[in-house]
Amino acid sequence: MGKIYSYLLGFGLTLLIAVFIAAFVSWNHIYVWFLGDVDTLYKEAIHHYKNRQYDKALPLLEKMARIDTASYCKLVLADMYYRGMGTHVDYERAFELYEESAELDNYDAHNNLAIMYMYGHGVEGSYSKAFRHFQYSAANGDSHGQVGVGNMYRHGWGTLRNSMTAFDWYRRAAAHGNLDAMNNLGYMYVCGFGKIMDIDKALYWYQRAAEQNHSKAQYNLGALYAVGLGVERDLIKCAEWLTKSALNGEANAQFNLGNMYYIGKGVERNLDKAAMWYSLAAEQGHRSANKFLGHLEQHMDIVELDSNFVIHLILE
């Protein structure tokens, strides 16, 4: 009798362990079943997110992100924690979710992990780790990762500085239609980094990106017209491109457009418009905008600015 009892007890324990193992292995399927109509839940979450109803999107994405294979939901939820959308900024939670998404081969997650390592957000800063994450997505054809690798080579962050290699990565990304890469190629050609200086090619890449509403490329085209580099100096065209860029939220364009309205370069002098553009630039943290807004409010004439009107090119 004792042997039978021992046998039954052993069998029961074995069965119980097997059930636990099966439940653990199948947890993801069980959880998905528990959620119900996952497709509808996903569409509702993304709808709220795209409509900036972050307080409604957050709890739904939290549920979806617990699914093992929900790479995109993990990515979006990580972005919300990283930027503080619908919740407080939580770099550690964002980093955790980016890692989970990256493990599922989400290249955007790899790129965002690289950014976090670059700036030490929620993790100890490491250019070498940032470089590896950019490399992974770049090697798999992701244009944002390719731009990231190009930037690392251009600055010498996490790798040896190499302008030629940076140029090649920008060119690959531009071939995939990446507008940041086109803008950076324009800058490289203007300055002769990685290639011989070629203003015509710089104009070509700036024009391609600017026509697709890339704010920095629009600003850079305006800068070329301001100084007459590769084109005839034309402050009216400069103002036109800066206006497009400023309307797209580029702080440098807003500040310089404020200067143009302040002194009447390329546009009719208008102090109200100058104040508006300075204010918008200041709201984005532009260093000189508040200073010049103060000059304007004190009715100061900027003689030095009038005689030395220069706009500097910018990168990504």
Distance between the termini: 80 Å
The radius of gyration over CA amounts to 27 Å
Number of helices: 18
The proportion of residues forming helix, as a percent range, comes to over 70%
- Could you give a short account of the major beta sheet? none
Order of helices and strands: HHHHHHHHHHHHHHHHHH
SS-derived structural category: mainly alpha
How much strand content do the residues show? under 5%
> How many individual β-strands?
0
* Principal-axis shape: globular
Low-confidence stretches: 15-27
Compute the average pLDDT. 87
Description:
The chain has 316 residues and is an all-alpha fold. Helix content is 72%, strand content 0%. The protein is built from 18 helices and no strands. The chain has helices at 2-25, 27-35, 38-50, 54-65, 71-83, 91-103, 107-119, 127-139, 143-155, 163-175, 179-191, 199-211, 215-227, 235-247, 251-263, 271-283, 289-297, 303-307. Helix 12 crosses helix 13. The model is unreliable at 15-27 (pLDDT under 50).
Brief characterization of the structure:
This protein is about 70% helix and about 0% strand. The radius of gyration is 27 Å and the shape is globular.
